[in-house]
Amino acid sequence: MATETKKMYELVAEKIIEQLKQGIAPWQKPWNSAGTDYSMPYNAVTSNPYKGLNALYLHLFSPYQDPRWATFKQAESEGWQVQKGAKGFMINFVKTHDLRTKLDENKRPVIGTDGKPVKIKVELNSPIVTKAWVFNAEQIKGIPPLPVREIKDNELWGKVARVESIVKASGAKIEHVAGDRAFYTPLFDKINMPERPQFETADRYYSTLLHELGHWTGHHSRLDRELVNKFGTPDYAREELRAEIASMILGNELKIGHDPKQHIAYVDSWIKVLTDTPYEIHSAAADAQRIFDYVMAFEKKIEQKQEATKAPEYNPNTLQTGDVIKYNGTKYEVLEADKRNFLIQDLSNNHKVQLTVNDGLFNSLVEAKRANRNTISILSTIENKVKEYDYSIPTAKELVAQEDNSSKRKI
Fold first, then answer.
1. Where are the domains of the chain?
2. What is the spatial distance between Cα 27 and Cα 60, in angstroms, rounded to a whole number?
3. Contact assessment for residue 35 and residue 150, using Cβ atoms and an 8 Å cutoff
4. Secondary structure class of 126 (helix, strand, coil)
5. What is the pTM of this model?
6. Which secondary-structure segment (H or E) carries 98?
């Protein structure tokens, strides 16, 4: 197990410094390693991704390709078995509740039907940071194998379209200029990118753009980080560290990978910052997680917008927003609708009335809605039947031709 004599951030900082000195990009792993969709570390039981420093810690220290992790108890609960002698990896998590034995009015433990004391979740007075040890799926017997599938060439376009839609939804101002520099300018709130053809692949272009989008989130109107720093200063290196980690986890989430070449210019600065202040890696990982969450929130907004524009499926048993129903010679439009309350407008005089499911008019309108639907269905059927017949009127020339043919048949 990881040593407890050092803080996790110290271990991570030391690991990064060691790899940077060796010329290795510490956060680079192939996203399609072993034919799988490479992911950042996540829990094998809950499917929840590890975040912040925990994610970075497992990513850097793990010699395994499988991104799945679980505690000993979690593995046991699934019928899996941690291999004998396997070494766990320490993570930190914030604990807000505690499991305690339920007591009766006499302060005695309540025993459940299984003969064991009943446990209840009790909220702590204040959150505490505690430790847990997790094991990789490759250390666990009985866990289903990670699905291996062939990555098809046409999937690239879907991934590119996904990133493009997120960037577009962000509203970030992007200007393409011939050259070899990609950068974000806080003063003009603008991202400058080289022309697309200058990149070897679409993946390289978008991984670079995600790095700059990471800086873009630091604007005072967004996540508000200090961005006006001179190249080569510790503060400049700190911001680059955040953008680099953020683009790594974004690249893995969006399955376009990560280009480690961007970090080369900052190696010496990062080594100095992390040597002087090891805790900086904890802060950087936390900020990178905030960047990730901020950027990915644009995808959720896209999904919500698409869901909102979908026409609701026809329901004959209630009123739905947008329904226009003819009843007793009057047309009514449903302006708002939820499960029990409805705002209706009389289109003859624009008078609005609030209804509930218990009102007589509600039930009458629902019945009229069904009747209108049936009438439309019948008319549609008749219309389709009519279309099966040719009711076109022949021209005079066609009538003469028909008469000539008739005469010939008689002869």
1. 154-310, 313-411
2. 7
3. yes
4. strand
5. 0.67
6. strand 89-101
Q: Which residue's structure tokens are 């003819």?
A: 326
In tens, the pLDDT along 349-403 reads 888 999 998 888 999 999 998 887 766 555 455 555 555 555 555 555 555 565 5
CB neighbour list of residue 364: distance below 8 Å, 6 or more residues apart? 327
Distance CA 55, CA 49 (A): 8
Of the candidates 295, 184, 201, 217, the one whose C-alpha atom is nearest the C-alpha of residue 193 is: 184
With CA atoms as reference, report the closest residue to 156 among 32, 29, 306: 32
Q: List alpha helices for 194-345, DSSP H.
A: 202-216, 234-253, 267-276, 280-309
Residue 246 Cα distances to 45, 267, 284, angstroms: 25, 17, 9
Residues 6+ apart with CB under 8 A from 323: 333, 334, 337, 369
In whole angstroms, give the CA distance from residue 210 to residue 215.
Answer: 9
pLDDT more than 90, % of the chain: 43
Lookup: tokens for 268? 């010496």
Cβ-contact 239, 4 below 8 angstroms: no
CA-to-CA distance for 212 and 228, rounded, in angstroms?
Answer: 14
Which helix (H) or strand (E) segment holds residue 183: the answer is strand 183-185
